[in-house]
Amino acid sequence: MVMGLGSRFASILESRGPLCVGIDPSTDALRTVGLHDTAEGALEFGRAIVAVSASRVGIVKPQVAYFERFGSAGYGALETLIREAREAGLVVIADAKRGDIGSTMEGYATAWLGDGPLQSDALTVSPYQGFAALEPVFSRAETNGATVFVLSSTSNPDADDVQRASLANETLPRLVARYARQRSGNTRTVGVVVGATRDLAARGLTASDLDGLLILAPGFGAQGASLRDISDLFGAASTTVIPSVSRSVVQHGLANCATAIEEHLRELGL
């Protein structure tokens, strides 16, 4: 059992395994599945994924940007989707990548981890305004039994110019991982995001840098990484990896989402 997390997150990881299904209603994704590129289409898309996920996995991750682009209607759709996903017993990671300072960060903490209409079980954040600036979301996560995933090393190829920079002979991904581990302690309130499209060494990380941290790992499926390679990619840290798949789940239409998820579960040996 994963100790120190909020009880819902802990029980989900224990009972249903770590696979996370992304909900990414981009223009291309909606077109692929034959839905209108509207807030209503995004909600229908999300509901279909929630329906097939609820009996197969425990975690979903809506990408906030794909709802936000529709303005207030998009936020309304996202509120509905998050509520329905949590009511279906799923843990929701809001992939919002928020990051700011002071009272602004407190506002984000209240929005995504508070008791309002966007309340989620976890939130992705960016540390590049300063790690200490994220304290409002860390504190709120502790209070509400949630988890904050801090960007450490992402999958996008353009990130190296920044993420391979070093300070005092430590790469930025390693520094972020160290700060996250120190802040989380034994609670696992704070985890990291590490993309899966390259091994750790190529990212300036080692498995020991990630020791004890929950690792949200995008990049599996359509982005090229294989779920069968988690141990090779993350080494000793693979036991705390939450692998995320999204485009590969919907690429053959919503009617085939269940089959795609089940294939991914087989790749994980579940």
Overview of the molecule:
The structure is a single chain. This protein has twelve helices and ten strands. The chain is α/β, with parallel strands linked by helices. The chain has a single domain (7-267), classed as TIM Barrel (Alpha-Beta Barrel), CATH 3.20.20. The strands form two sheets. An eight-stranded parallel β-barrel has the order 1-2-3-4-5-8-9-10, surrounded by six helices. The protein has a two-stranded antiparallel sheet with strand order 6-7. Residues 1-5 have low confidence and may be disordered.
Give the tally of structural domains: 1
Output the CATH homologous superfamily: Aldolase class I
What structural category arises from helix and sheet content? alpha/beta
- Overall geometry: globular
> Looking at CATH, which topology would you report?
TIM Barrel
How is the biggest beta sheet arranged?
8 strands, parallel, barrel
Order of helices and strands: HEHHEHHEHEHEHEEHEEHEHH
Write the layout of secondary structure elements.
Blueprint: H1 7-16, E1 20-23, H2 27-32, H3 39-53, E2 59-62, H4 65-68, H5 72-87, E3 91-98, H6 102-113, E4 122-125, H7 135-144, E5 147-153, H8 160-163, E6 166-167, E7 170-171, H9 172-184, E8 190-194, E9 215-217, H10 230-234, E10 241-245, H11 247-250, H12 257-267
Parallel strand pairs: 1-2, 1-10, 2-3, 3-4, 4-5, 5-8, 8-9, 9-10
Antiparallel strand pairs: 6-7
Helix pairs in contact: 3-5, 6-7
Pick out its properties.
single chain, 270 residues, alpha/beta, TIM Barrel, eight-stranded parallel β-barrel, two-stranded antiparallel ribbon, 12 helices
